[in-house]
Design brief:
The chain is mainly α and 310 residues long. The chain has helices at 2-9, 14-35, 45-55, 67-92, 103-123, 127-157, 164-173, 181-197, 209-212, 222-247, 256-277, 284-307. It contains 12 helices and no strands. It is globular and about 55 Å long.
């Protein structure tokens, strides 16, 4: 029990994932600034943002709506992200004790933050937040089905293994899944899915600063918004790490393997950052069609190819 709590709160759970995610968030903002010919923030800016919200800014609770749900939503989001981080990173770091990383459980845990944001926005009583929550829900219904097809494709390629540790071991014993045609297609689809999960351009219509002024998060401030920031930091790390486990045969934390692990995760973050800086925001109808039609079609094609061994 004590070991599981250590995994959850310290390594590789809450503390480790949050710190690593904060540095990756800085990397994302720095690359974005360079693309726009700006200098960008200092290295510790994500930490300044978090602690300023947590310790300095006042928490304002809206009069309308449900204050209890409004305040608990960020807590649920952080719990889901931290639990998913623990289940993903334990097998990724080859830690055999503790909790196991079942893909279906991880799939549902990764959906908790998005659903929590919807609950929080609806509980705020703000019309703009409700619009943001409505957009977020429509987006969830679009990309989650596609992400589930990606998971199904990985399970098929892994000989019907649901255990993340077994999936990584299979890739170590043969070759990374991304080295096949079906693996490449599934990886492309997965990249767009995590782009939407992170709420990044072109799938940031739920926040849409120029239209909804942060949308679902418009009423959040102080400590509750700090928890939302912390959840986003964790998700910014564990989603690329999840793709590394699913497609790039995991990581090896020994010698040069540590550098190679950093490059894998940083490479996926770089790809995500370049996508967000080279595409305009889509309308919610366009985003839904993109996932429900084109990405689902690609995922089904990849599953058929995987069935025939390609």
């Amino acid at each position: 029990m004590a070991v599981d709590l250590l995994y959850f709160f310290v390594f590789p759970g809450l503390l480790f994932s949050a710190v690593t995610g904060a540095f990756l968030s800085w990397f994302d903002r720095k690359i974005t600034a360079r693309v726009q010919f700006r200098k960008g923030p200092p290295l510790f800016q994500p930490f300044y943002d978090f602690f300023k919200l947590l310790l300095v800014k006042e928490t304002i609770i809206p009069r309308q709506g449900s204050p209890v749900v409004f305040l608990l939503a960020p807590v649920f989001a952080l719990f889901g992200a931290t639990t998913a981080a623990t289940l993903i990173l334990l097998p990724l770091f080859n830690i055999t004790s503790g909790l196991r990383g079942d893909l279906i459980v991880i799939f549902y845990l990764l959906a908790i933050p998005s659903f929590s944001y919807v609950l929080g926005s609806l509980a705020s009583g703000n019309p703009l937040a409700a619009v943001g929550g409505s957009r977020e829900m429509k987006l969830i219904l679009s990309y989650e089905s596609t992400f589930l097809l990606v998971i199904a494709g990985i399970i098929l390629k892994a000989s019907q293994n649901f255990d993340l540790n077994s999936i990584i071991t299979i890739q170590h014993n043969s070759s990374p899944f991304i080295s096949s045609i079906s693996g490449i297609i599934l990886f492309v689809v997965a990249i767009f899915c995590i782009q939407a999960k992170l709420g990044l351009v072109p799938f940031d219509m739920a926040e849409a600063e120029t239209e909804l002024d942060e949308g679902a998060f418009i009423e959040y401030s102080g400590a509750p918004y700090a928890l939302i920031k912390l959840t986003k930091y964790i998700m910014f790390f564990i989603l690329p790490a999840f793709l590394v486990a699913l497609f790039l045969n995991g990581v090896t934390l020994k010698g040069v393997g540590i550098l190679w692990a950093v490059l894998k995760i940083a490479g996926i973050v770089l790809l995500i950052t370049l996508i967000r800086n080279t595409n305009p925001r889509l309308k919610i109808k366009q985003a839904a069609s993109f996932f429900l039609v084109w990405m689902n079609l690609l995922a089904v094609i990849a599953i058929v190819l995987a069935y025939f061994g390609y």
